[in-house]
Fold this sequence. Notes:
heterodimer; A: about 100 residues; B: about 500 residues; globular
Amino acid sequence: MNFPLSMTYWSHFVVVAMFALGLLGFLLRKNTIVVLMSIELMLNAVNLLLIETSMRTHTSEGIILVVFVVTVAAAEVAVGLAIVLNLYRMKGSVNLDHFKSLQG
Amino acid sequence: MNTVVDYFLIPLLPVMAFIFAGLLLILVQCFKRPSLRPFTKLLGFLGPVGAMGATWYLFKSQPLAYSTAMAGSYEAWLNEFIQSYQLDSITMVWYWAIGALSFVSFIFIEAYFADLEELPEILILLEFIAAAMMLLISASNLLMVFMALELMSLPTYVLVGIEREKHFGAEASLKYFLFGSFATVLLLFSIALLYAYTGSLQFTQISNFLRVPVGGENPSGLMVLAASALFIISVGFKLGMAPFHMWLPDAYEGASTPITGFMGSAIKLAGFGMALRLWWGMLAPISSHWTEILGVLSVLTMFVGNLGALKQKNLKRLFAYSSISHAGYLILGLISISKVGSQLGVQNLFYYLVVYGFMFLGIFGILAVIEKQTGSTDLSNVEGIGFSHPFLGLCFLVLVLSAAGIPPTAGFLGKYLLFADAVRTGHTTLVVLAVLSSVIGVYYYLRVLVALYMTEPSQRIVLTTKNRLVFLGILACAFCMIFFSFFPQKLGI
């Protein structure tokens, strides 16, 4: 199958837009859960780029990496949510502004 | 001989020692018998000891069949493995260092958490971290780099917050987690960009493509520039390079003291191994894009570390900043590898990494004993220890002198070798600034020594531990500082 050039152009556009949205969310939002979601969004942008490249160059490495990324992302969220839950039990909040006891 | 044994099982022996010990610990932990606890503690050492033994075996059985393995002539999965895992004599020395550093930090960790119910779980996580560090150092494929990095990072986030009721630890683990996963995402994005540009995840293929682009593409195009910049940012986050260092003092202070020792020594070593592979193994053809930036960042890192440590009252935080400054020296060594002739530069970097690792580990071993007894690691808690506890005081003295880089210790020789390399490759300005910053650093190291030997203690403290092995571990770390100074050839110099 021949991969049309316009497809590459548009998919790169979507990738950059998704990654930028995730980056903004990571840097600007204060809610820890939303920050975790932003990380997921960035990971999915990367996945899209990998899949597009894999189809364009007819190589399989990209698709394989995507499977690993999805698995690792699930593990990462599990660890992250456990950490957030533990903090919520202690502080009663998931707002990043409330976690400032380590300073200096 | 069987190809699977020769090309898969034997080269992976050190990694498997750790994984096997981890799985065995999980199995024993399933029984949930308190009577099995001493056995669990002993079993924890199976990983490091087994890994060191296996590495020794690999050394002795040279030339390894694996070094002549030709990808493409075996079953598909074995070809993939041979392409993504490299094992040379340099890697094996790094393996040995990881085994030794883990062994000593296991002693400190088992003594510190002796009463904690979750001790076996901590050991399980540590075994897998150590296995991942070995895979990271010998990865030659970006997929392997990503998986090993994640296998190393995820348990570390958990370990930082393992004492659940301490809210410092929980907060530190959240910070570490957020910055760490952000760094992972950036690394993954740069991997994807490089893959989109070159169409491969293999180090050798990527570097060949960057040298001679197929189809006349421009190797300094936007995609490669973005990928190389993202590599600097993400690896900089992992190594605690300024200006991406802000998580490091918090994570190192919030984590339990012996865990910090492990993070600062062994994980730093693995991180630099990864940086070495990524930059000199893969991005070497476009080295002009990143050596200058890294040089400036290394000086910035030294100054941030040394200036930040000046005003610290808490010893854990002080040495966390000191570890930032040491990362700066190491990055300076990393960029001076190229033109010197790579072999020598890598050895000097390795020498400093090992010396720094044992130094950091020893200091945090002592701090762990102090914290266990007095409940905090404030500077006022070490006052007068030099006289009330001559042995601990002397070890602390040697380790801190080595951190400051004072001549009879190995810290001096390591710094000298790195700076000499940097001068030889023409980074003279950077070296002048580096020497200036290490002079600033001497101030706060001396403050610790003044507290140790020249201050009357405000309260009488007695430092003991039930586990005598801890003192042996501290002694071993201090001994390394003297030994490697007089016998640097033992580390391949």
